[in-house]
Amino acid sequence: MGSHSVKSVLQGTADPEVEVRGWVKSRRTSRGGFSFIAINDGSCFADLQVVADQALANYDEIVEIGAGCAVVVAGTVAESPGKGQDREVQASEVRIVGGVEDPETYPIAKKRHTFEYLRTVAHLRPRTNTFGAIARVRNTIAQAVHSYFDANGFVWVNTPIITASDCEGAGELFRVTTMDTNTTGQGQETRSAAGGASAGGPRGGSPPLEQKGFFGRDTFLTVSGQLNVEPYCLAMSKVYTFGPTFRAENSNTSRHLAEFWMIEPEIAFADLADLADLAEDFLKSIFSEVLRRHPDDMAFFRDRIDASVIERLENVVESEFLRLDYGEAVDILKASGEGFEFPVEWGRDLQSEHERFLTEQHAGGPVVVVNYPKDIKAFYMRANDDGRTVAAMDVLVPGVGEIIGGSQREERLDALDARMTDAVKEELWWYRDLRRYGSVPHAGFGLGLERLVLYVTGMDNIRDAIPYPRVPNNASF
Known about the structure:
By secondary structure, this protein is α+β, with helices and mostly antiparallel strands. About 30% of the residues lie in helices and about 25% in strands. It has helices at about 5-10, 60, 115-120, 130-150, 185-190, 225-235, 270-295, 295-305, 310-320, 325-335, 350-365, 415, 420-425, 430-435, 450-455; strands spanning about 5, 15-30, 35-40, 50-55, 70-80, 85-100, 155, 160-165, 220, 240-245, 260-270, 320-325, 365-375, 390-395, 400-410, 440-450. It has an eight-stranded mixed β-sheet with strand order 7-10-11-16-15-14-13-12, sandwiched between helices. It has a five-stranded mixed barrel with strand order 2-3-4-6-5. It has a two-stranded antiparallel sheet with strand order 8-9. The longest helix has 23 residues, at about 130-150. The protein is elongated and about 85 Å long.
């Protein structure tokens, strides 16, 4: 008799005699001398009912078991007469491996807790139904990302976490330093402390060489792997990077994290239309895999979090993504008669309310908006022949709006130089080299894993889409 997961028992793939290990969700005692223990090991959403009768040698100990206790149960799998599951385990042994010191103080009681409260006990919230389901779905998304790219001939490239470049130009960076800010002067402390552009970023003036620390220059936590993955794209054709990124924005909204994970594929010999095709196929593949592998978890999200979540994902999978030029999108929004909070004007970025109107009211499904004004987009995006726009795209989905942002990259050195400052040219000399030695049209997009988890699960706050959220004034766990 080997150890079996709760999932294998409930699915009927376990042996008749099993050993199951997990944590107690609840326990109740019947008048007939039986204790019914619900245990879960994280392998699936459902709990396994264990029936322990009073003939067991440690029955007096069993009836004192409370939520949170870790147990090992040996017994026989049998048909369950109760509602909600076909099988249960009739215990021949229930061994308590880890007790709960004081059941009255156990933070995860058998009741509904607010998500705000659960963030204060992030070390225990995986034991709840919601966060166990989020963890399983997040894992499947991550595995599906790697499987999709591997099946389609992409090479995974591990780009640096420590960088000297600010890919997005936002300047809101965490500085990396070994300097002891507690023993330096105030001026030096300000420059060497973790923070944004005010800490002496690439555009804010550099401290003297002797103050630059370990790498001999200013270094930061990366905001994107894009610049570093492009050289591999221009050698291996199809690549992607998938790893942690960082933004030092002092923001406390439900959509911002200081640390998050980014999925960034890059394809050579490709234009914006090729990139839009990739983004559409990629999302459909990921959503299909989640729906296939997690019917119970997704049913929970539908019933307890967002009633439309399954239907929304199925709609994306079954839809053909509408392609709209940015100018067309602006015209549609202006003609809608909607009283938008943010005015719609050519040259301004689209807001979430505009994106949701396009997907939910106009198209009734996903939309890819292409060819944005160049003045609101990054320097590396390819300039279009009209002189006003760049070959950029946003993939918009019902419910949230933008979920993917990307562009065809500027492969022409003269056109790239025209949009770079002298300082950026000097900093990114190697990036310019790529346009001098075998340059080709290429394109890529970025997708935040946590934003994807939010969309798939229907959760509202991005702090609940990552195991340990990093936000201003909170790095406790």
